[in-house]
Design goal:
The protein has 226 residues and is of the alpha+beta class. Helix content is 51%, strand content 7%. GO terms for molecular function: glutathione transferase activity; maleylacetoacetate isomerase activity.
Amino acid sequence: MAQNMMLYWGSGSPPCWRVMIALEEKMLQGYKHKLLSFEKNEHKCEEVKALNPRAQVPTFKHGDIVVNESLAACLYLESAFKSHGTRLIPDDPTEQALVYQRMFETNNLQQKMYDVAFYEYYVPEGERLESALKRNKESLVTELKLWDGYLEKMGKGSYLAGKSFTMADVVCFPVIAYFPRLHCPREHCPRLMEYYEMLKDRPSIKASWPPHWLEKPEGPDMLKNL
């Protein structure tokens, strides 16, 4: 079953990592995979382009089915292997709604984190403004407070969408993991940091931990002065 799957991925990419967590949670170990270097632009190789015209990772193939967007790949795995491993989407419509809300809302947290942590990477030197970076930082702090509030409301020991681990956690954890790695001050997101500590040793997360993070556990201090 899993031997008929192929995943092209990059280390540390939240979209790639979430697909790998989903594969682990659905007990689909043994899938084929190829680690590509972002620094060498290996994700833009012809092998990937043949499956994904955007030349991006993750690029995921199961038999003749190709799914390239990470959320779509995660949802496909849950649908195709509903009875395998962890049930990641609940049947109850109310519970399901919150899972979907947090899943798709994760993009806001990810983008605002990127806007601060990778500001110098995305913005050419001649176009960088301290005022713009300041606004980005303020926007990220506001976003972190929002997510901290979600967890506060759910209660201590809760996952993002309730008392059970769901697709919301699969999708969002790889983004949240960047905050301690990039030295975000804990006071900006104490509940998120508690959540991170609760999940970081979960088997599916440990099994898919970015290899270059294992080699260098300490990341750069891009969020230290948030």
